[in-house]
Amino acid sequence: MAASMAASTHSSAPRALAGRDRASRPAPARRALVTRAAEAGVPTIFGAPGSRTQIVEWACLELGVEFKSVTLNRAIMKSAEYRAVHPFGKIPGMKAADGETGIFESGALMLYVADLSGSLDTPERRGAAASWVIWANATMWPALEASRGQCDMESLFGPVDAILGDHAWLLGEDFSIADVAVGAYVKYGQMFFGMQVPKSMPNLSRFMADIEQRDAFKNTVAGG
Description:
- The chain is built from ten helices and five strands.
- By secondary structure, it is of the alpha+beta class.
């Protein structure tokens, strides 16, 4: 069976999603697919529509990081070559900008993108951002998923609402990768489970309304 993939390259403009070239490429040698797709100097995101891939794409667009996006089928995901990028054969995965290093887990991809952009310019800022990225992936989303969006919202989001009462964004007055991580999973809770932000949390509601207006968000996470 011939394997196929679709690739597209995206410019570094943070608020505009470049057009995608979705032409399939039949490949006689499956092993060469992932290597051919990656280009040194530009990170390559391997994934599929309707997955956490779109969170990483949103991060790149917001932070001005040029990237290449490759849609994989299940046959390629099982290949030894792709497992050199993601040892467990899941998505999303990424070939780093050096064209060699494999990175996996969406939170790690988000933090790598933020590092590439130069937005985490001190160890302290990186630590603060990583705290939110890890919380969103390891605490918030599992709680929403396990409860189908019916968990104790005050316990989960009360501290978030309080922080957003003091600042426009989670790390202060500037949008950051922390907002990407938290905003994406709140949106997924709404999309997949019909979750509603409680009326008692006006700051979180304002935060999500602001995120919904961002063009890069509309073209990635909100588009499914």
